[in-house]
Prior knowledge:
By secondary structure, this protein is an alpha+beta fold. The protein has a single domain (43-293), classed as Hypothetical Protein Pfu-838710-001 (Beta Barrel). Helices cover 21% and strands 33% of the residues. It is built from eight helices and 13 strands.
Amino acid sequence: MSGAIDLRRQAGDASGASTRTVQRGARTAPSRAHGTGRTGVPAVDPAVEAAARFAPISLEELIAEAELLTRVDRKYLVPIDQLGALLGGLGSATRVLEIQGERGSAYASMYFDTPGLLSYRLAARGRRRRFKLRSRHYVDTGDAFLEMKTKGARGATVKERIPHPVDAVDELTPDGREYAAIGMRALGLDTDAADALRPVLRTTYRRTTLLLPDGGRATVDTELAWEGVDGARLDTPRLAIVETKSASRPSGFDRRLWRSGIRPDGISKFATGLAAMHPELPSNKWSRVLRTHFAR
């Protein structure tokens, strides 16, 4: 592409670091296709393949069993080639979300922040009162929501959301801006900042959702891609993000990950992705993750 800078790093170790492509000066639409043919990228989603032996669960059943809008989240960065063994060791009572016959769903999110990146900087500084605002588009079902995530007492994540127009997933509507202002006011933040919120970063991935035998949930995100409004793009085809969600105690899946030498990582798709694409931003909080998995 004319004017584009293409930086590629090929990682061959077991750390999970993966091919990193950053393009600046050109806007590229994220691909939703499977089996893109890139070297080292599985033609079949390994999470879906590993979950094939589990019984299906519908979205309605999953919500009834474990909605968990107030929860403790633990995130792990897992090399793609380890997913099969990790998921294969889960008990047979594990169930996998199935929608319209599909066990992997396409997601797209647009994150909103101020010109000064207030949301990002609150996270980078580890402030207790912080927020993250995004539109979430469930591509396969055509649903969309505007979600605000905040940090509550003892590190618990609280997520609230309202319906959002599917034809405006990359925009903040007047209702959405008012919703953001109410959330920011509850955190003691200047609500004038809500007027300055704008699109900053788009993420796409495929998600497999599991209901664990002990009642918790786990999600496995593959085909991860980030795209900035400035045209910068980042892909990590050899890396998955596994997230466990429980009311308090670690799940059996958490313990299985720990026994495999995989510990929770402080990763945020928004903040870590933005820091990886823009090394000039303060990023000490994610320095180990960036150094290990997003080598710059």
